[in-house]
Structures are given as C-alpha cells and as structure tokens.
Amino acid sequence: MPPITPLNLRPSLPLRLPAEWEPHQATWLSWPHERSDWPGKFAPIPWIYADIVRHLSAVETVRILVRDEKLQREAERCCARSHAVMANVEFFLAPTNRSWTRDFCPLFVTNPDGQVSVTDWHFNGWAKYPNSQLDDAVPSFIASALRLKRHQPRHKRNRVVLEGGSIDVNGAGILLTTEECLLSEVQQRNPGMSREDYHAIFHQWLGIHQVIWLRNGIVGDDTHGHVDDLARFVNQDTVVIASETDRTDPNHAALADNLQLLKAATNQQGQPLNVVKLPMPAPVLFDGQRLPASYANFYIANGIVLVPVFNDPNDRQALNTLAKAMPHHRVIPIYCRDLVLGLGTLHCTTMQQPANIPA
User: Fold this and answer.
1) 242: Cα separation from own chain's centroid
2) Number of separate helices (H) and strands (E) present in the chain
3) For the segment 143-167, what is each residue's pLDDT rounded down to a tens digit?
C-alpha cells in the first residue's frame, strides 16, 4: 500500500484547514478540572496551564472554556499570578468533561475569502470513555458564541468522528494520519468507513488532496494512534517524526517503519518530503504505567513554538532540532512530566483559531 494517496474526487467545497503555523486569531484551552485525569498529581496542573497561557497571551488571544464562575475565578487568579497578559485572555462558560481541546474543539476552516467557519465533528471520548457528551457539545457552543457558520460532516447520515490529534496538515492539501487510529477495529471511531471514505470526507471538508497513512502511534497513547505524538508538519514540505535509537525500546520498530513510509512520500509536485528525525525522551513512567511522552506534541502559535520537555538529556536535542526546522519561531520549553500523566501534553491541550485572511 503506497503511503501517500492522491485523491481523484469531485471538487471540494471551498474550505481549507490552515496549517498550524499560519496566523492565529486565538488559541482555545479548557481549564483543567477532572482530577481523575491526573490521579495523585492534580495540584501542579493548573499552574502548568497558567504557564502555557502566559506564553500564548504574549502573542495572541487566549480563549479558555470554564465549567462555572468559581473555576473562572480560580483560573483568573492562577493566570494573573503567573503574569499572563490578562487583557488577551477571554473566558467562556461552557461545561466540559475533560480538558483536551485538541480533540473536541472544532476544526476551524477558511474559505478563499478568509472567512472562518467551524467543522463540528462528533466526539465520542476516543471510542473509549462514555462521559463525552459535554465535550461533544463544545463546537456548537463556540460556533454560536462567535457567530460562525457550522458544518457537521456526515457519512451515510452518521456524524463523522474525528479528533484534531488524529490528523496533521500542511495547509496546502496534504494530511497525515495513522491506520491504527482511523482504520483499526480497536477504539473504532467510524464503523464501516473505509480508507476511501475518509479520503472523500477529508477532501470535502478540509480541502485535502493527498493523505499520508502512517501505521502505528507511540506506546502508552490512550487514543490508539494519534499522529500528533508521532509526526508533524513544520512547513509545507517538512515533517518532523519521532525516532527511537534504542532497539530494545517498544517504540523502535514502529517508529522506524513510519520513518520509511515518510521517506517514500512526496508532495503534490512529486518531490520528496524533507523528513527530520526528532528524538524520543527516555520512557516516562509513573506508578507502573508508561506515559505517552513525545516531543512531537509541540504547539505552534504566532511566532513561538511551545515544546514539551521532561527533564531528559534529549530535551536539548529536541529543542535544537525544532529551532532549526522553524527558524522564524522562538522555541519555548514547557515542563510536562506532570502534565503527561493525563496522557497528553501541549498539543493535546490547545486548538488554534486561524485569523481571517483571504487566500
């Protein structure tokens, strides 16, 4: 099976999912409140979020979902004490089940005039957790709050399940995803949907013309194969991919396989992609559990890149690699050894809202 698939389908709607490095109007977060996501280590989590807000609010608007006014007051105090730019922080009262906005917030798309609208995908708790109804309602809430047009992608009358962490795009028609997440019968998102069905949906609603199917994600990933812990575009033709040099590590074989698939892939002009290896940290363990620690879970905002670090010798190599790959962005490390106990880090906690700029 070729790793990259050109799409030969009817013309798509004039919608496009911009790349993460394109100008943002805002970043969306959901203030943490579900203590069971960080069993025994919840106390530092709000302060990690406040540090994220501190950096983001210096370069763009930060929009934070809070479940009630009490939590909003707590979040305001935490962010203010952390020296966030509070004039750039907005709060929205909307109850959520969890705080992983990457997966339940809408994917914001643009048309050729630069108008932003919302694609409202179904969120079913990663086909694993039953308490996801509040999270699933967030895209409708945001569309209403911002007065944006809302689209609900469907396949054979069923709303399509798609989490933001399961895909990555270059803004020019290419999408990365994994077979483990979207095609496996384990944590199956859309029973009955084929590879070709996904191609049609991506083409119609996200403006995608080629799909690169990688195989398996990293060990410890509760989502069963999200690509944002594995491989990410940093410009239209460059992908960074997690790589494990220790042959005894369970990640080694799967990451080597995905590396070969990327090296065989091309862009829409038939040219090879520029593939850059990103190291993995040493295994991060807590209470006998291996956690999905990966430097690939970085978040690109206006002029900056927030990168998860783990007090690991490879932190420096990862930061230098990303600084070289994105020379026009300032690379900022965020300590995430506590945050990753929730089975996600920086990219998982954020969702970009693109600026209204005509194509």
Assistant:
1) 15
2) 11, 21
3) 999 999 999 999 999 999 999 999 9
Alpha-carbon separation of residue 92 from 240, 258, 324 (angstroms): 34, 39, 37
Instruction: List CB contacts of 171: < 8 A, sequence separation 6 or more.
Output: 16, 17, 18, 19, 21, 22, 233, 236
Domains of the chain and any CATH numbers: 4-354 (3.75.10.10)
Cα–Cα–Cα angle for 203, 208, 214, rounded to 5 degrees: 110
Per-residue pLDDT of 240-276, as tens digits, reads 999 999 999 999 999 999 999 999 999 888 999 999 9
Residues 24-59: tens digit of each pLDDT: 999 999 999 999 999 999 999 999 999 999 999 999
**Dihedral angle of Cα 151, 132, 69, 99, to the nearest 10 degrees:** -90
Do 283 and 249 form a contact (C-beta atoms < 8 A)? yes
Q: Tell me the one-letter amino acid at 80.
A: A
> Would you state the structure tokens that stand for residue 212, as one six-digit string?
């690169």
In sequence order, which residues have a C-beta less than 8 Å from that of residue 73 and are 6 or more positions away? Answer: none
User: Do residues 111 and 12 make contact, with C-beta atoms less than 8 angstroms apart?
Assistant: no
Active-site option among 79, 105, 336, 348: 348
**Mean pLDDT within 283-304:** 98
Is-above-0.90 flag for pTM?
yes
> What are the distances in angstroms from CA 32 to CA 50, 171, 353?
10, 30, 20
For 117-139, b where at least 16 C-beta lie within 10 A, e where not — what string? bbbbbbbbbbbeeeebebbbbbb
Answer yes or no: 79 catalytic.
Answer: no
CA dihedral 75, 79, 84, 86 (to 10 degrees): 40
Name the token pair of 10. 């009817």
Residue 358 has pLDDT above 80, yes or no: no
Does residue 170 register a pLDDT over 60? yes
| Residue with token string 């995905």 | 258
Distance from C-alpha of 259 to C-alpha of 212, rounded to nearest angstrom: 12
